[in-house]
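Quick start: read one record
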Amino acid sequence: MPLSRDHARLALATIRLVNGTLALVAPNALLRRLGADPNVNKVAIYPMRMFGIRTVVLGVQLLIDAPSPEAARSVCSSMPLTLQQRSRQGSAGNCRRGSPP
């Protein structure tokens, strides 16, 4: 059985949900797994949690993604702008005004 787009989407969603949840629930364990000592570098716990919630949100978005392009367009058009889209628009606006992004 050949792998489809849905198989890849579900695999990526699962990986993101596991890693994001681990970063939120046990950031010290994830830091040790990455080779950092959480007792020495306590500042690294906050970014782990910050990127953990982002990763969980991306995983959930992958799970609720509509498989057909038409349905995806209708869902995306009804959703508010994501942070990434807002960031791009802000950068584009800065470029139009002549200031650096």
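The longest helix spans residues 5-25.
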